[in-house]
Design a protein that fits this description.
Elements: H1 12-17, H2 26-36, E1 41-46, E2 54-57, H3 58-74, E3 82-85, H4 91-103, E4 106-109, H5 116-125, E5 130-134, E6 136-137, E7 140-141, H6 142-149, E8 158-162, H7 170-174, E9 192-198, E10 206-211, H8 212-226, E11 233-236, H9 243-256, E12 259-263, H10 268-278, E13 282-285, H11 287-298, E14 309-312, H12 319-329, E15 332-339, E16 343-347, H13 353-356, E17 363-364, E18 368-373, E19 386-392, E20 398-399, E21 414-422, E22 428-433, E23 437-440, E24 443-446, H14 447-455, E25 460-470, E26 474-483, H15 491-500, E27 511-514, H16 528-541
Helix pairs in contact: 2-9, 3-4, 8-9, 10-11, 11-12
Length: about 550
């Protein structure tokens, strides 16, 4: 794969001179752990249905990552190849990530919610050489789905099935002891480490490229802002196929030489029990996770005394939830804002979390700049809302095969598509989105893709999907449709249609509203803001 990371070259010299790009790969930090304390717990992996978790030292994780790396090479994976894995939060996710880095391959984690509609595009666009899936997860047969896709994946060399029983099982292909020792060099600091798809407004996901330097510059700043160290125990409950999980819940503990406790299925009571037993001190996830844990404690589950710090991003956090978490859980919730393209750009430090997290999304971390401009690119003063732009060390290396979409100016400013303002202290507040995305529980819903599918329904004349507020998830999605003469469409009909189209269930709108006419300008342009105003009452009613 020719990644062509066009956004790297202009930053190479200044970022390295400033010390933001340290030219360190994950292998540097992992080797440090092996030298310092090889028998320290690297991870604890809890899986639903298993009585005991899997506990793994850095020494044992190193052994398993080495076997997987050798197994991938035996399957024909080499430098700059893409390995796609659709796994829940398990030890294999971490080991595959390390294995890819050791052989110079790009890791491409994809969310377990994805189905054929999304995966066919991603696997073909990224020319993935190996696709790793669980046999089953949450009562869904991933092996059957993947086998049904193989004929349409010309670049794929091998399907690998975790917990599989056939010749393509994870153990038989990637845990073999008879493969040759590694000889080729691993990833260099400016090689593409991570390929991660993000939902956008183009109707298809965009593949974000990150290197060790771009990603780790953000992780170091994040570690400092959140005051994390090698004694911290990190709860990994947010999906690791998001940048939140991959970067901040997998890579950060490895960089720190600390420990990660992984939960494959979210259950707030189990999360609290695990946190008490394992001494969890910190995690990062969407606000819904905090709300769920508060409710669990309020209904009888004991809190976890050591679990005192939490970082939440993806949507503004209601001030009442920040106060509730402190009162009920003894937890300081820090707010943050970021994107797959640039990591956690702004963070509210724990010392000011109670004061600022409910009214801001934090202030920029070292190595990244933010600015708010008007429609003409003029810098706006504090308090005025405009287009949010960012530049700096953690900005991505570009979109794979689509440099024309990079939205980056000649002097390095990236247009986030969000609207925001800065307060007098330099804290950022997201104040709307110019891009057409609904964020549900921290998950971006690709609105245009869902609308395009709805337009194909035989009953639909016109449609628009907008978000409406939800106390727990931040937003839910509502589909407004006008119908063809004589046609009918119920919510159940829409659900059955999306199911037949193999669309991830989390992308389905939670509400359907049939209207006689869409609001439009005299020229016929859809006025989505009017639909958002109409949909807002659904949230108020809830």
């Amino acid at each position: 794969m020719n990644f062509d990371p066009v956004l790297l070259a202009p930053r190479l010299a200044p970022m390295k001179a400033a010390g933001f790009w340290r030219d360190e790969t994950i292998e540097v930090f992992f080797r440090r752990a092996l030298e310092r304390f090889p028998d320290k717990t690297a991870l604890v992996s809890y899986r639903q249905g298993e009585a005991e978790p899997i506990r793994m030292s850095y020494r044992e994780l190193d052994r398993r990552a080495d076997l997987i790396a050798r197994g991938l090479v035996a399957l024909g994976v080499g430098r700059s190849d893409v390995v796609t894995f659709q796994l829940p939060n398990t030890w294999e996710f971490v080991a595959i990530t390390l294995a890819c880095a050791r052989i110079g391959a790009a890791a491409n984690p994809v969310m377990p919610i994805f189905r054929e509609n999304e995966l066919n595009f991603m696997l073909n666009f990224g020319e993935s050489k190996v696709f790793i899936v669980p046999k089953t997860f949450r009562n869904f047969d991933y092996e059957a789905m993947a086998n049904g896709m193989l004929a349409g994946l010309p670049h794929l060399k091998q399907l690998v099935v975790l917990d599989g029983e056939g010749e393509n099982s994870f153990d038989k292909l990637l845990m073999r002891a008879d493969t040759p020792a590694l000889s080729a060099p691993g990833l260099a600091p400016d090689d593409v480490l991570l390929l991660m798809y993000t939902s956008g407004t183009t109707g298809e996901p965009k593949a974000v490229m990150h290197t060790s330097n771009t990603l780790f510059s953000n992780l170091h700043a994040y570690i400092d802002a959140m005051e994390l160290g090698e004694t911290d125990i990190v709860l990994g409950a947010s999906p690791m196929a998001h940048l939140t999980g991959y970067g901040f819940l997998v890579m950060v503990p490895l960089i720190l030489n600390s420990s990660i406790v992984m939960q494959d299925l979210w259950d707030p009571r189990q999360a609290l029990r695990i946190s008490r037993e394992e001494g969890v001190t910190f995690s990062m996830a969407a606000a819904a996770f905090i709300s769920d844990m508060c409710l669990a404690v309020e209904t009888g589950e004991p809190p976890a005394p050591s679990f005192t710090k939490f970082l939440s991003a993806g949507a503004p956090i209601p001030p009442v939830l920040i106060e509730r978490a402190f009162r009920v859980l003894g937890m300081r919730v820090s707010s943050a804002w970021g994107m797959t393209e640039c990591g956690a750009v702004t963070i509210t430090e724990p010392a000011r979390a109670l004061e600022k997290s409910g009214v801001s999304d934090g202030r920029p971390v070292p190595g990244i700049e933010v600015r708010v401009v008007d429609a003409n690119g003029k810098l706006l003063p504090a308090g005025e809302t405009g287009a949010l732009q960012v530049r700096g060390a953690s900005l991505f290396a570009g979109y794979l095969k689509r440099p024309q979409l990079n939205a980056t100016s000649a002097d390095g400013w990236f247009d986030t598509g969000d609207l925001a303002f800065l307060d007098a202290e330099g804290y950022l507040r997201i104040n709307g989105r110019s891009k057409d995305i609904v964020i549900r529980g921290g998950e971006n819903i690709p609105v245009m893709e869902i609308e395009n599918l709805l337009y194909k329904h035989p009953a639909v004349l016109a449609c628009a999907v907008v978000g409406y507020p939800d106390q727990r998830l931040g937003e839910r999605a509502c589909a407004f449709v006008t119908l063809k003469p004589g046609a009918t469409l119920s919510f159940d009909d829409m659900a059955a249609y999306f199911d037949a189209q193999k669309v991830a269930r989390q992308y389905w709108p939670e509400r359907l509203e049939v209207v006689e006419q869409m609001p439009a300008t005299p020229s016929g342009k859809l006025q989505k803001f009017k639909l958002r105003e109409l949909a807002r009452r659904f949230g108020d009613a809830a």
